[in-house]
């Protein structure tokens, strides 16, 4: 417009050039996305570990219930069944995780294991349970 003068400063062109500069934008985008990506990957690992532990519990209670029904010599008492289940688990569970009872369906073995998930910035505890009953 005539009559209005535009103020110019020596820093004006440098600021305009800086706003059009895209160097470093990839690093900023990675810095924003990386924490979410790392938490997602660690969460996948923990869910996989939880599923493996659940599978180990199910396998050990099935084997212990079968042993209690078929092999009374090595799995005749509840403490022997618990020790057998702990040995067969592959997950280094304590024998106290397992309980053995004689139920209406046969020999019943149950397991209850508190599992702590190692997810950064939080602590979650999940109780995994498994049971099996094998006819006598």
Strand and helix map with partners:
Blueprint: H1 12-19, H2 25-70, H3 78-88, E1 98-103, E2 106-117, E3 124-134
Antiparallel strand pairs: 1-2, 2-3
Helix pairs in contact: 2-3
Give an overview of the whole structure:
This protein is α+β, with helices and mostly antiparallel strands and 136 residues long. It has one domain (23-134). Helix content is 48%, strand content 21%. The protein contains three helices and three strands. Helix 2 (25-70) runs antiparallel to helix 3. The termini are far apart.
The strand line-up of the biggest sheet is 1-2-3
Number of helices in the DSSP assignment: 3
Supply Rg: 31 Å
The SSE string, one letter per element, is HHHEEE
Kindly estimate the percentage of residues that lie in beta strands according to DSSP: 15-25%
Oligomer: single chain
Largest sheet: 3 strands, antiparallel
Query: What is the domain tally?
Result: 1
- Rounded to the nearest angstrom, the distance between the terminal CA atoms is 101 Å
Task: Label the structural class.
Answer: alpha+beta
């Amino acid at each position: 417009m005539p009559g209005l003068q535009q103020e110019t400063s020596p820093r004006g062109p440098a600021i305009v050039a800086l706003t059009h500069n895209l160097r470093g934008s990839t690093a900023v985008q990675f810095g924003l996305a990386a924490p979410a990506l790392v938490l997602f990957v660690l969460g996948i690992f923990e869910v996989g570990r939880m599923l493996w532990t659940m599978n180990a519990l199910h396998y050990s209670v099935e084997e212990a219930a079968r042993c209690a029904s078929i092999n009374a010599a090595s799995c005749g008492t509840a403490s022997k069944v618990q020790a057998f289940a702990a040995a067969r688990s592959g997950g280094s569970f304590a024998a106290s995780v397992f309980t053995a009872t004689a139920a209406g369906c046969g020999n019943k073995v149950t397991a209850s294991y508190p599992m702590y998930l190692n997810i950064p910035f939080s602590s979650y505890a999940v109780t995994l349970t498994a049971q099996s009953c094998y006819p006598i």
